[in-house]
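Structure in, sequence out. Go:
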């Protein structure tokens, strides 16, 4: 869980960096997209690797949840987290499965929109990558889905990033503050970074 989660965090940062070219303009983004897809075999290999990584992360999440439930038939009278963050007075780890499920649904929607070009609300014909991206995010349904998805992803990262290092045995007062700070920066970067695109497209 920890390793797959951190690898997915790295992917999100690179994906966000590439997508920032949307804000630069059509020429820059179209050039980036065409250059990327000119190596079709590399793109397909990357997509297959990411699919395997996501599938493994989801499988491990479900397996861990089942093992935890079966290992403790009687619920704790009180639960205390080793990581102190709370969201709406609820320990952040209690949100992990729900926010992960929402983030997964968001990912499936995103793939349907951009990769499969399945959205019935968008005319994909003869559109360059920049125009296609703007058209997708300007649809009210995708606009709402992307904002909710970004929020769920942010909440998932808030606990997941720190928890990953703890699971790997990197848990020491000397480093915990740095890890907590890096997790907060990552959460803000991903949440506001990806949420910026639909807001920008809607007001374009």
């Amino acid at each position: 869980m920890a390793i797959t989660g951190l690898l997915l965090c790295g992917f999100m940062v690179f994906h966000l960096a590439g997508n920032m070219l949307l804000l630069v303009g059509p020429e820059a983004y179209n050039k980036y997209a065409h250059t990327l897809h000119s190596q079709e075999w590399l793109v397909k290999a990357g997509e297959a690797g990411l699919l395997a990584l996501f599938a493994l992360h989801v499988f491990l999440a479900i397996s861990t949840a089942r093992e935890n439930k079966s290992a403790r038939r009687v619920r704790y009278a009180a639960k205390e987290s080793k990581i102190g963050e709370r969201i709406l007075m609820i320990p952040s780890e209690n949100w992990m499965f729900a926010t992960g499920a929402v983030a997964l649904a968001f990912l499936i929607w995103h793939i349907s929109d951009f990769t499969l070009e399945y959205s019935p609300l968008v005319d994909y014909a003869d559109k360059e990558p920049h125009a296609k991206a703007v058209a997708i995010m300007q649809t009210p349904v995708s606009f709402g889905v992307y904002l909710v998805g970004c929020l769920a992803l942010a909440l998932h990262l808030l606990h997941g990033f720190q928890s990953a290092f703890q699971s790997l045995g990197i848990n020491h007062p000397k480093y915990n503050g740095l890890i907590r700070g890096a997790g907060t920066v990552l959460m803000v970067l991903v949440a506001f970074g990806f949420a910026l695109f639909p807001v920008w497209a809607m007001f374009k």
